């Protein structure tokens, strides 16, 4: 378990507050309230897309909260025989030891392994695959690395990771590529055949072993463009996560570290809003020792969908505002030259 | 001699070589197209389960399970003293999953990889709520899951959870109830239970439900891929019904084994 250990008394104090008729939380929030979320895109100039996200920063001194930096990096990959030529998406989560001072190095490693598994299984699923990661069909494609770094954990890490990943992927630009083709001159092949070996080579007959003709494009180049390329295909689909912390009969959102360790069961619901009316569930996980029943689950999914829609709308408007802000900045910079 | 430095005494094969592709003599899943009915099984039919508890002598409890091409052996050691871990008033459940090198189409190098841990996580979550860990403070229960033959991750998680729960009972560890688990995949508009590797790969989304049918409780839902909320709920209901049947089979087998 990621959370720090709290005493039995503290745990039962938190639980009693949450399960009472008039639910109380330590910081005075309602059960469905989020802490303030701060988001900025384009924080890593060397990445193809990046974002920095903070949940629950202290407004007075600007410290604290869960802090995650996400960055995407595209790499050219030469395809092996028989590999899927659509490109790949690989997600990795790294936890700074400073974020988990109470855990041993081994435990931090296990934790980042577990976080990576959930993120990678969800975001690298074929149903979310962007369509423009192909460079040369059958030869070369982009490998999209999504790296997430946890700088501080003050609870609700899954929601933060998915939100940061979505922001970074939204911000990602795929460089434009252009095919380059090498063609042997017709009849100019005699300088190849004449190796002085006196072999009779029939140039007109195509050999069955010659597979070079299979793909016309041999290589690619990057044309110079004023922007860094086109956005990832299907970027509206990248999902967001809602963690429902279950304290029967109640559930609440955005748990702090101490609340997390007092909660017996967490339900992760990952929603994708390709269209806002018909969201799809992209992943679902239970974490913890508690259990639930199917009528409860039905209710939770319904509620979760509502929370996710609200979060999605807020995040979407923020991402659009970030796009405007950065384009404005670039234009002003350009004009002042 | 075309090249200089050509030595005909050496093997002059090509620099690269590729694995031979064998023609699959079982039913060809590539013939299946979206919207077609399931080949060889009804949509809601699962593969028959063979379960044998207590095959591994030196372990406190064990189970071997086989369903279709999935074969998994589970051994349980403990509850035993937890070393180099600070005092804890509850016991700890430790699940380790290992793929045999020969368990998949491609050889699996005998090192720990990401998939081992993700399956271990899923099995851990499926059985964790059923175990009475508060009865064994300061102890640890080690569960070793060896996958001898794999046919899809979803199948491994589901079948592994059933076997692990049966092995816990075989070891005499107190549990609230037996855990039964089923996987499902959405193919086209249909829901297919207990998908094989190919079926899961062709599906849009998959789901593994683990429950304690005796208590009517769900311990875990492990879902991946694109599914509508209604599809998830429908899948949960169907899987829950199937789990009741699996539970009967497992309970019957355990009773049979332990009454001898």
SSE diagram, text form:
The complex is a heterodimer of chains A (337) and B (260).
Chain A: H1 8-19, E1 37-41, E2 49-55, E3 66-78, E4 88-95, H2 105-123, E5 134-136, E6 140-152, H3 157-171, E7 173-174, E8 178-180, H4 190-193, E9 219-221, E10 230-231, E11 240-247, E12 250-252, H5 257-261, E13 265-272, E14 280-288, H6 294-335
Parallel strand pairs in A: 4-6
Antiparallel strand pairs in A: 1-2, 2-3, 3-6, 5-6, 7-10, 8-9, 11-12, 11-13, 13-14
Chain B: E1 49-53, E2 61-67, E3 70-81, E4 92-99, H1 114-127, E5 139-149, H2 153-170, E6 180-187, E7 190-193, H3 197-202, E8 205-212, E9 217-227, H4 229-259
Parallel strand pairs in B: 4-5
Antiparallel strand pairs in B: 1-2, 2-3, 3-5, 6-7, 6-8, 8-9
General description of the model:
The complex is a heterodimer of chains A (337) and B (260). Chain A has 337 residues and is an alpha+beta fold. Chain A has one domain (35-182, 218-335): Ribosomal Protein S5, domain 2. Chain A has helices spanning 8-19, 105-123, 157-171, 190-193, 257-261, 294-335, and strands spanning 37-41, 49-55, 66-78, 88-95, 134-136, 140-152, 173-174, 178-180, 219-221, 230-231, 240-247, 250-252, 265-272, 280-288. In chain A, strands 1, 2, 3, 4, 5 and 6 form a six-stranded mixed sheet that branches. A four-stranded antiparallel sheet of chain A has the order 12-11-13-14, sandwiched between helices. A two-stranded antiparallel sheet of chain A has the order 7-10. In chain A, strand 11 and strand 12 form a beta hairpin. Mean pLDDT of chain A is 84; it is low at 187-202. The longest helix of chain B has 31 residues, at 229-259. Chain B is α+β, with helices and mostly antiparallel strands. Chain B has four helices and nine strands. Helix content of chain B is 27%, strand content 28%. Chain B has a single domain (41-259), classed as Ribosomal Protein S5, domain 2. Chain A: Residues 34-175 form the Exoribonuclease phosphorolytic domain. Chain A: GO terms for molecular function: mRNA 3'-UTR AU-rich region binding. Chain A: This is Ribosomal RNA-processing protein 42. Chain A: One of its GO terms (cellular component) is ribosome.
């Amino acid at each position: 378990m990621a959370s720090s250990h709290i005493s039995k008394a503290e745990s039962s104090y938190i639980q009693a507050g949450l399960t009472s008729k008039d639910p109380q939380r330590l910081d005075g929030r309602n059960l469905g309230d989020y802490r303030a979320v701060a988001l900025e895109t384009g924080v890593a100039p060397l990445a193809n897309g990046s974002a920095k996200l903070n949940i629950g920063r202290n407004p007075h001194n600007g410290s604290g909260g869960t802090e995650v930096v996400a960055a995407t990096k595209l790499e050219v990959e030469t395809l092996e025989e028989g590999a899927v030529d659509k490109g790949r998406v690989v997600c990795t989560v790294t936890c700074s030891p400073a974020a988990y001072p109470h855990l041993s190095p081994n435990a931090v490693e296990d934790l980042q392994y577990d976080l990576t598994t959930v993120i990678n299984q969800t975001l690298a699923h074929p149903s979310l695959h962007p369509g423009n990661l192909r460079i040369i069909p059958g030869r070369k494609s982009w490998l999209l690395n999504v790296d997430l770094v946890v700088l501080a954990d003050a609870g609700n890490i899954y929601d933060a990771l998915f939100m940061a990943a979505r922001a970074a992927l939204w911000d990602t630009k795929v460089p434009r590529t252009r095919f380059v083709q090498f063609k042997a001159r017709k009849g100019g092949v005699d300088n190849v055949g004449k190796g002085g070996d006196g072999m009779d080579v029939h140039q007109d007959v195509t050999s069955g072993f010659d597979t070079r003709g299979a793909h016309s494009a041999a290589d690619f180049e990057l044309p110079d463009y004023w922007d860094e390329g086109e956005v990832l295909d299907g970027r509206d689909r990248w999902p967001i996560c809602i963690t429902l912390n279950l304290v029967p009969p109640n559930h609440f959102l955005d748990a702090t570290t101490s609340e997390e360790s007092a909660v017996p069961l967490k339900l992760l619901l990952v929603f994708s809003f390709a269209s806002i009316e018909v969201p799809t569930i992209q992943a679902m996980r239970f974490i913890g020792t508690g259990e639930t029943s199917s009528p409860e689950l039905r209710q939770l999914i319904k509620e979760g969908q509502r929370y996710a829609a609200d979060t999605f709308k807020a995040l979407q408007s923020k991402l659009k505002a970030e796009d405007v802000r950065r384009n404005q900045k670039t234009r002003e910079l350009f004009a002042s030259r | 001699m075309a090249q200089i430095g050509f030595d005909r005494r050496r093997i002059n094969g090509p620099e690269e070589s590729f694995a031979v592709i064998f023609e699959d003599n079982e039913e060809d899943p590539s013939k299946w197209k979206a919207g077609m009915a399931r080949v060889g099984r009804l949509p809601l039919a699962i593969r028959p389960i063979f379960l044998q508890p207590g095959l591994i002598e030196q372990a406190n409890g064990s189970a071997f399970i086989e369903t279709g091409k999935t074969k998994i052996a589970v051994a349980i050691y403990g509850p035993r003293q937890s070393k180099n871990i600070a005092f804890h008033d509850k016991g700890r459940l430790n699940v380790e999953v290992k793929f045999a090198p020969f368990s998949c189409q491609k050889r699996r190098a005998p090192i720990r990889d990401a998939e081992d841990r993700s399956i271990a996580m899923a099995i851990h979550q499926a059985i964790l709520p059923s175990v009475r860990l508060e009865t064994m403070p300061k102890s640890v229960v080690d569960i070793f899951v060896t996958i001898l033959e794999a046919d899809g991750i979803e199948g491994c998680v589901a079948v592994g959870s059933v076997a692990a729960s049966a092995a816990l009972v075989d070891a005499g560890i107190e549990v609230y109830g037996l855990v039964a688990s089923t996987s499902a995949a959405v193919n086209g508009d249909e829901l297919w239970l207990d998908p094989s590797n190919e079926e899961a790969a062709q599906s849009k989304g998959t789901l593994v439900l683990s429950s304690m049918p005796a208590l009517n409780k769900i311990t875990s839902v492990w879902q991946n891929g694109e599914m509508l909320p209604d599809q998830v709920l429908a899948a949960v209901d169907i899987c829950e019904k199937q789990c009741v049947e699996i539970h009967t089979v497992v309970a019957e087998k355990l009773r049979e084994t332990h009454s001898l």
